[in-house]
Specification:
single chain, alpha/beta, globular, Rossmann fold
Length: 296
């Protein structure tokens, strides 16, 4: 297994990075995958989802600044996270690459695609949305009306508005909604043959950084709206979503796929917020077929 390495950004911040599929004898295409859940998720999520591609691609995964083992030094903005992607692309030595973004990582990936579309050989979006204010409000409404979970209403409002009190408040808010990230029990039973795995969203050693979460949802989300810019994304795009995703529902992915000129939408009928873990075999096949078609 490859070890993680530290890559220093232009402002001195150190990012925790891992590259799967390095081969000095073969120059493989580069794929950079962004994790979701700022301040809690890590490179373990994209490594689990995309690691199987390492025989054909160099798969670069990393803890975004403010998450995991990377420095907790801001700013925690899309602009800064996009510059970090550019720094990693240059560090890897590639002019063009495949970009994948899951959940919140999809927001950053969309912003990157709008600003640096010429760099992209392909774009992969998993369970995401194109408008921050509406998306976060709808996610909160879905949580507060769900019959599957019982939550502290004030705490959930703090989570989705970026006003969590501290790291413990952040942890409690996420822990009480974990069941909603997976498909309902009857759907899981019906899909037993798909060999569902543990959700990738919060894999690995979990640590909570409320400052990253608060910046993401108090500052970034109100300003994030790329709906009118999606038509400018020319990269071949795969949009993936779980039918039972309560956080970023099918309608959000449909909106994105309808607006991007060269987009393919795949709905996973037995999945919640994480098709790579809910229906791993189907996810791997669809992703492999897409990349084989668009990356030469």
């Amino acid at each position: 297994m490859p070890e993680t390495t530290t890559v220093v950004m232009d402002d001195g911040v150190r990012l925790n990075v891992k590259v799967l599929g390095q081969d000095p004898t073969v120059r493989k295409p580069l794929l950079i995958s962004l994790h979701g859940a700022p301040g809690v998720s890590t490179l373990a999520e994209p490594e689990s989802s995309f690691g199987y591609l390492s025989d054909r691609y160099r798969v670069l995964v990393f803890d975004a600044r403010g998450s995991g083992a990377s420095d907790k030094i801001g700013p925690f903005t899309h602009e800064r996270w996009i510059q970090d992607i550019e720094n990693l692309r240059k560090w890897a030595g590639d002019e063009t690459f495949i970009l994948a973004g899951a959940s919140y990582g999809g927001f950053v990936a969309l912003d990157y695609a709008v600003q640096h579309g010429a760099r992209l050989r392909a774009l992969v979006l998993r369970d995401t949305w194109a408008n921050g204010r509406l998306g976060s409000m709808n996610a909160l409404a879905s949580i507060l009306t769900s019959k599957r979970i019982s939550v502290d209403v004030d705490r959930q409002v703090r989570l989705w508005s970026g006003t969590v009190l501290n790291d413990q408040d952040h942890a409690l808010a996420l822990q009480e909604i974990l069941p909603i990230f997976t498909p309902p029990t009857d759907v899981q039973t019906a899909a037993a043959s798909t060999e569902q795995q543990e959700s990738t969203e919060f894999q690995g050693s979990v640590a909570f950084y409320s400052a990253t979460q608060n910046a993401a949802f108090a500052e970034n989300m109100p300003r994030f709206d790329v709906r009118h810019l999606l038509k400018e994304i020319n990269a071949p795009t795969l949009v993936v979503v779980g039918r039972h995703d309560a956080i970023t529902p099918v309608s959000c992915s449909q909106e994105i796929a309808d607006a991007i000129p060269n987009a393919q939408l795949e709905i996973f009928e037995f999945s919640g917020h994480s098709p790579p873990s809910d229906e791993p075999e189907k996810f791997e096949q669809i992703l492999s077929d897409f990349l084989q078609t668009v990356v030469h």
